[in-house]
Amino acid sequence: MGTGTFSSRSLIVGGTAIIRAATRVVDKATKIAAHLLEVDEGDVGFFEGRFVVAGASDRTLTMKDVARAAHVAWNLPEGVEPGLQESSVFDPTDWTYPFGTHAAVLEVDMETGEVQVIRYVAVDDCGNVVNPTIVEGQIHGGVAQGIGQALFEEVQYSPEGQLETGSFLNYAIPSATELPSFELDRTVTPTSLNPLGAKGVGEAGTIGAPPAVMNALHDALETDDEIDMPASPERVWHAIRSLRSSDPRGSAAV
To answer: Which CATH architecture has domain 99-246?
Structure first.
């Protein structure tokens, strides 16, 4: 029973259940392979889908061979039931805690208030990585969403309560044009809470990007005054004008 893919839990919970069930399948298949090869179970190793007799690399069986024998059940070790299907349930004892550092470099047009992200660097630690491409893709997508939250996306209503951003014609989301090429790296600190040593990464980008972008914006404007998200050109323009009007010299040091 799975309640959904959220909270960066798919690999941690589902993946652990899969690897535990798969390990049981391999253990049973090894017992069957040893019987078919007429050797002790301890002399059989499993490598890349093949069962190999130690010291006799020419004596092998594929998983397909063993699966067929397990299901046909004509020649099985004593006490071994037919089939190779196994199941496992994994209930984590605690949460895993990934971590990372995200940094953004911005340029602000002081006349229009337009903000452009010119560089974005993210270093994350999600424990052991099973599929690097998927991890990088999740961080790319999450960072894009986080930048969207910080600079573009907003649900707006008219004074009469009419939704004014009901389509992508007027609900702003970042495209490739508004985003830099993300620079990613990672460290690896395995967790002991699951046998994969994996931690969540699905929300790393969405958590790291908004504060990274907004902190960079406040740093660029040299202000501690709050700027609401999304930091649209209009809001940034008003913030700049407010800073300049409050500067006794007539212009803010920005």
So the answer is: 2-Layer Sandwich (3.30)
Indicate the DSSP class of residue 208. Answer: H
Joined tokens for residue 166? 């009901």
Catalytic one of 203, 222, 226, 234 = 203
CB count within 10 Å of CB 85 equals: 11
Q: What is the pLDDT of residues 27-73, one digit of tens each?
A: 999 999 999 999 999 999 999 899 999 988 889 999 999 999 999 99
Distances (CA, A) of 203 to 5, 90, 137, 230, 241: 12, 22, 12, 19, 35
Does the annotation mark 203 as catalytic?
yes
Domain spans of the chain, in order of start: 1-92, 99-246
The Cα–Cα gap between 142 and 117 comes to: 15
d(CA 131, CA 138): 11
Quick check: helix, strand or coil at residue 143?
helix
